[in-house]
Design brief:
mainly alpha, Rhopdopsin 7-helix transmembrane proteins, 79% helix, elongated, Olfactory receptor
């Protein structure tokens, strides 16, 4: 039950992520309406960063859930009770909200006096920062630091969980038990690798290296491909 509860939250995030960005992209392509208001751009970036931040934390929580299921199977139902699962899920959404609030305020309190053309199919941090006529190095440093602490903490929890999981699996003498354990965490590990690979390639770099064409291609991966593949991965890996 805890695994499917967290999968429900992941499914909601996978619905929200393309809804925030792809609908506006389709409007631009099909209706040739490429305008977006300042408020609309702000809200789009806010909800996008909230979804991405929440998903990073949720994947860490899901890794911890898999750790308890494999390393402490007899205590799993007691440790991962409904109340703890609800608190963990609520905590991921709340931290994602606060993280997004900070990032959005840092970006949209800049002075924009040059072009108003966002060279991307949605409002994101790198293309919006590129429009500022003021130096953005200080704010970029704060954004990278906060994102690094949040993402780094989630990554440490995920990595630590899988180190313990791998150790537990290798100590199993029965090949059937090892196969079952690998099957239990294989789908989550695939989703983690897919998500971290695309988000790191998009955000973990200075805006001076911003390349509109390349970033549009990379952002397509985690905005469209990742939400599309997540349910496929879990469907194939679960009976």
């Amino acid at each position: 039950n805890p695994m499917y509860f967290f999968l429900g939250n992941l499914s909601l995030l996978d619905i929200l992520c393309p809804t925030i960005t792809v609908l506006k992209m389709l409007e631009a392509l099909l209706l040739d309406n490429k305008r977006i208001s300042f408020t609309g751009c702000l809200l789009q970036l806010f909800f996008l960063i909230e979804v991405v931040g929440t998903e990073i934390l949720l994947l860490a929580v899901m890794a911890f859930d898999r750790y308890v299921a494999i390393c402490h199977p007899l205590r799993y139902a007691t440790l991962m009770g409904a109340r703890l699962c609800a608190r963990l899920a609520l905590g991921t959404w709340l931290l994602g909200f606060l993280n997004s609030l900070l990032h959005t305020s840092l970006v949209f309190t800049l002075l924009f006096c040059d072009s108003n053309r966002v060279d991307q199919y949605y409002c994101d941090i790198p293309p919006v920062l590129a429009l500022s006529c003021l130096p953005t190095h200080g704010r970029e440093l704060v954004i990278l630091t906060v994102a690094g602490v949040l993402g780094g903490s989630a990554f440490v929890v995920t990595l630590g969980s899988y180190i313990f999981i791998l150790s537990a699996i290798l100590s199993m003498k029965c090949s059937e038990s090892r196969h079952k354990a690998f099957s239990t965490c294989g789908s989550h590990l695939a989703v983690v690798c897919l998500f971290y690979g695309t988000t790191i390639g998009t955000y973990v770099r200075p805006s001076s290296t911003y390349s509109p064409h390349r970033d549009r291609m990379v952002s397509m991966l985690y905005e469209i491909l990742t939400p599309l593949l997540n349910p496929v991965i879990y469907t194939l890996r679960n009976k």
